[in-house]
Each structure stands twice: as C-alpha cells, then as structure tokens.
Specification:
By secondary structure, the chain is of the alpha+beta class. The protein has a domain of about 110 residues. It is built from two helices and eight strands; from the N terminus they run H-E-E-E-H-E-E-E-E-E. The protein has a six-stranded antiparallel β-barrel. InterPro entries: Hcp_Tssd.
C-alpha cells in the first residue's frame, strides 16, 4: 500500500513538474526576425511582435458641387492608401538606427515568422520601398530580456506580400 501511494505521488508530481516546464518553454516558441536591405547592407533584428495594416480609400458617392465645375477636372475614383507594418523590436542596433535617421531613406525588407516547434508553417512578409512612419523607444530601470526597454517601429511601404501573395493597394 505504501509503495503504491508513493508511486502515485511520484507520478502526480512528475506530471505537474513536466507541465510547468513545458509552459515556461512555450514563451520562445515563435521566432520573429526583421531583415532590412539598405545601401548594400543587410541588417537583422529580432522582434517581439509584428502587426500588418492596410488602408484603402474609395470615392463611394460623388459630392454634389454647389458651384458648377468650370475647369472640368476629373478626380480619381480610388485614393492611394498605405501598407503599414508595426513592430516591437527586442533591440535596435546602431546600423538600423542609422537607416531610420534619414528622412528620405527607402529600404526593402523581409519579416520571417517561424514556429520553432514546426507545427505551424513559416510565414514570410516581404515589403518594398519602405520608409519609417513612426519610432518610439522606451527605457526603464528594469530589464526586459536583457534589453533596456522596448522599441516600437512603424513603417509604411509601397508594396507588401505575405507568403508570396501580393496585397494590392
């Protein structure tokens, strides 16, 4: 009786310890990586998260003019929108900061999303003719995964494709 009780207790304890270890290792299951090509240089940055956004604007109903249009101007039916990528970077290198520092800098790049367990397919987001839209750097006295804080980056690009599917603007 004592042996079976000890065996049952050992089994319950080992199962509960295994579940905790598995849950803790799940933190780094997905690997996100940004690769930028600018000025003949390739810059790689690890990311915590990425979000894509596409905005399109349509002229749904013509506006009635109070005054007649004497110039006979025609306006486009579709106004250009934008493709935006918002990222939370683990650390920003000086090389990447230099790319972002110039106002007119354009760059191409890729974001690769990999399930390190191999259960989900790899997702690749490619973008071209991108520029920095917004940048935020937050520092703290606390450490976040061996970094000073968090960095938020938003870029706007002319063209974006996800797993080879080009998203039209």
């Amino acid at each position: 009786m004592k042996k079976s009780l000890a065996l049952a207790l050992a089994l319950i304890l080992s199962v509960s310890l295994f579940n905790k270890i598995y849950a803790q290792s799940d933190e780094n299951r997905t690997k996100l990586q940004l690769t930028i090509n600018s000025g003949g240089k390739t810059i790689v940055t690890d990311l915590n998260s990425v979000s894509t956004s596409l905005s399109r604007s349509y002229d749904e109903a013509p506006v009635a003019n109070a005054v007649s249009d004497t110039a006979k101007n025609k306006s486009a039916a579709i106004y250009p929108g934008g493709c935006y990528l918002t990222m939370d970077a683990k650390k920003i290198s000086d090389d990447l900061l230099k790319v972002f520092s110039k106002k007119q800098t354009r760059f191409d790049g890729t974001i690769t999303i990999v399930d390190t367990y191999g259960k989900n397919p790899t997702r690749t987001i490619k973008f071209t003719n991108a520029s920095l839209y917004s940048f935020g750097d937050q520092f703290s006295t606390n450490s976040y995964n061996e970094a000073y804080g968090a960095t938020s980056i938003a870029i706007m690009c002319k063209e974006i494709s996800i797993n080879g599917v080009v998203i039209e603007q």
